Amino acid sequence: MKTIHAVAVLAAMFAAFAALAQPGGPPELPDGATVTADIPFATVDGHELALDLYMPAAADNPPLLVWVHGGAWRAGSRKSVSSLTYVESGYALASVSYRLSGVAPFPAQSHDIKGAIRFLRANAGDYGYDASRIGILGSSAGAHLAALVGVTNGHSELEGDVGGNLDRSSDVDAVVAYFPATNLTSILDQSTPFGLNLRVPALEALFGGTIEETTGLARLASPVFHVDADDPPLYLLHGDQDPQMPINQSHELHGAFKDHGLPVEFEVVHGSPHGGPAFFDAVRNAMVVEFLDAHLGAGH
Fold first, then answer.
1. What is the residue-level pLDDT of the chain in tens, covering all 300 positions?
2. Nearest to residue 51, comparing CAs of 151, 147, 119?
3. Among 4, 15, 184, 213, whose CB has the most other CB atoms within 10 angstroms?
C-alpha cells in the first residue's frame, strides 16, 4: 500500500508541475491580433507537422518569434503558448509542432524545428512578417530545443531535411529559454530524487536508451557543447526552487556564453519551481520584450 501511495503522490506531483510549466492553451488573443492555425509545414513518415501563426495588430513586416512547447519531449502541444505578450508588443509568433519522443527519437525534434524555420523563411512573403529577424523561445523541454537550435546553426547532424526549403537558413538571431535543460550528460547528477523520477524515463524515451548507453546522443543534444563565438544573444530564466530541471543547467549555459564573450542575461526567479505565473508576469514579460527589442528591433 505504501508503494501504491508513493506512486500516486508522484503522479500527482508530476501533473501539478506539468500544469505549471505547460499551460493547456494560449492566453487570450491581444486586441486586434489574428491567428492562422494549423499551417502544415512538413509531413514525415505520414506524420503531419504544422504551426500556428499569431500576427500583431496593424502588423507591418514585424520580426518573427518561434515558440517551442515543453512537455518532457514526449507530451505537449503547439497550442500551449505560455504568453502572447510578445504579439501584443509587435512581434509575429509561430508556435510549431515537432515529433514527440514516442513518435521519433532525437534528433528528429531538432530536424523538425529547423525545418519549420526554413519554411517560415521561405513563405514570409505570404504571411507578412520579416524573416530576416527571427528569435526562438521555449519553456522546459521546449527551452532546451530552442537553445539547441539557436546554437547549432548549420550543424549537419541536427539540421536534417524536414520540409525541404534547403536553400533557406535555419539560423536565428536571439534565444529566450525558460527553465531549460542544457547539458544532458550532467543533468541526472544535478537532479533531486523527484527530478530523477521524471527525467530518467523522459531521457530514455528521447534517446532510445539510458544515458550511459547513448552518451554520444546526449552530448549532441546538449547546447553547452555547441556554443561558439558566432551564436546569437541569449536570455535565460530559471526558478531557484525548480525540483525537476536543476537551475545548474541554466548556470552551465550562462557560463558557456560568458566564456565566449557572447551577449547573455540570466534572470533567477527566486522562490519559483518549474514554471508558473511568476515567469510571465508584467515585470518579466517587459524584461524579455526589452531583450528582444534590443536584438530584433521591433521598436517597442
1. 333 333 333 333 444 444 444 445 667 888 899 999 999 999 999 999 999 999 999 878 999 999 999 999 999 999 999 899 999 999 999 999 999 999 999 999 999 999 999 999 999 999 999 999 999 999 999 999 999 999 999 899 999 999 999 999 999 999 999 999 999 999 999 998 888 999 999 999 999 999 899 999 999 999 999 999 999 999 999 999 999 999 999 999 999 999 999 999 999 999 999 999 999 999 999 999 999 999 998 544
2. 119
3. 184
User: Rounded CA gap, 283 and 281, in Å?
Assistant: 6
- Residue 35: helix, strand or coil by DSSP? strand
Q: Are 180 and 147 in contact (CB under 8 A)?
A: yes
Neighbours of 14 (CB within 10 A): 15
Domain that holds residue 95: 2-296
The pTM (predicted TM-score) of the whole model is 0.91
Strand partners, 65: 93, 135
Q: Checking DSSP bridges between strand 34-44 and strand 47-55, what pairing results, if any?
A: antiparallel
The domain that holds 75 is classified in CATH as 3.40.50.1820
Rounded Cα distance, 217 and 168, in Å: 26
Q: Which amino acid would we find at residue 66? A: V
**Exposure of 121 in the CB half-sphere (CA atoms within 13 A):** 20
Per the structure, the count of domains in the chain is: 1
Phi first, then psi: give them for residue 71, nearest 5 degrees: 130, 30
Q: What's the Cα-to-Cα distance from 184 to each of 150, 189, 226, rounded to whole Å? A: 17, 10, 13
- CA distance linking residue 2 with residue 16, whole number of Å: 21
CB of 62 within 8 A of CB of 56? yes
